[in-house]
Amino acid sequence: AQKITQTQPGMFVQEKEAVTLDCTYDTSDPSYGLFWYKQPSSGEMIFLIYQGSYDQQNATEGRYSLNFQKARKSANLVISASQLGDSAMYFCAMREGNTGGFKTIFGAGTRLFVKA
Amino acid sequence: GAVVSQHPSWVICKSGTSVKIECRSLDFQATTMFWYRQFPKQSLMLMATSNEGSKATYEQGVEKDKFLINHASLTLSTLTVTSAHPEDSSFYICSALLGREQPQHFGDGTRLSIL
Questions:
Q1: What letter does residue A59 receive in the DSSP assignment?
Q2: A13-34 tens-digit pLDDT
Q3: Would the CB atoms of A108 and B108 count as touching at under 8 Å?
Q4: What's the rounded Cα separation, in Å, for the pair B48 and B33?
């Protein structure tokens, strides 16, 4: 069974600084995808970044980068130059490729607070 | 980009009422859609996978007769909460899948309040 763990219920970061949100996962499927989503207080889910299990390089999307450590089964999200608008809930998610029927399972989430 | 429309965004109704929530993919065909439930300050819990033209696949612990899912076309999936009670009050959110390595595209969610 697949499992996603986010151990940080809440994080504070000073505006303009970088912050790392932790995510570890567990799966026996060699083919899987890892996603990060942002959920502001309004409720919509905003896709941030994707990393495939066979990707050789860490994914980057603007100020977001994914620190993918396959052997450790971790996929931490790094947000550089934090902005006040980054304050939100962040979810790590995983989709198994071969056995999961493409369903995506979410971690418990980390609430990020950006301080001015 | 791909857009998923979810309607209604907010429902308040009396206990015993059945409520239907629609999820539409606006500019693409979605053979697979997902329905999630989210309690306040918690994560998204997958309820079921909706496949066009076939029965939905429900997650363990989700009552099939309570949460009816219909995926009659490639652009529409519906979730009907039958005989809703206060404990069914929650945030329900749907998503559609474009491809295996693609992110899900989410609707904006439906806040359901049962009085």
A1: -
A2: 999 999 999 999 999 888 899 9
A3: no
A4: 9
